[in-house]
Amino acid sequence: MSQHIFKWTMKLFVHLLDLIVLNSWIPLYSCGAKYTHQEFGLLVVRNLIEEARKRQDFPTPRLVGRPSVAAKNVV
């Protein structure tokens, strides 16, 4: 069951990403940019991956200070 959900969600994600790339490329191309649709798509995906890597480099912030009263009641 979970593989079935993964398949359609991945297809939807890729389809929406392709639509976003196309809708971004059309105005760029009409302004005279020299990228093809495929080159622009690869550039966008590479930049998304680089940004995701940058965000993973930072450790999760630790909570500093005295715990709240509600936190003491949690087991």
Describe this structure in words.
There is one protein chain. α1 crosses α2 (about 35-55). The longest helix is centred in the first third of the chain and has 29 residues, at about 1-30. This protein has one domain (about 1-70). The protein starts with a helix and ends with a helix. The chain has about 80 residues and is mostly helical. The chain contains 3 helices and no strands.
Condensed summary:
The protein is mainly α. It is 72% helix and 0% strand.
Itemize the secondary structure elements and their pairings.
Layout: H1 2-30, H2 37-57, H3 69-72
Helix pairs in contact: 1-2
Give the fraction of residues assigned to helices.
over 70%
N-to-C series of helices and strands: HHH
Indicate how many domains the architecture comprises. 1
Class computed from helices, strands and strand pairing:
mainly alpha
Question: Quick check: average pLDDT?
Answer: 83
Indicate the overall shape.
Answer: elongated
Number of strands: 0
DSSP strand (E) fraction? under 5%
Question: What is the count of helical runs?
Answer: 3
State the distance separating the first and last CA atoms.
Answer: 33 Å
Please compute the radius of gyration using only Cα atoms: 21 Å
Low-confidence stretches: none
Major sheet attributes: none
What structural keywords apply?
single chain; mainly alpha; 72% helix
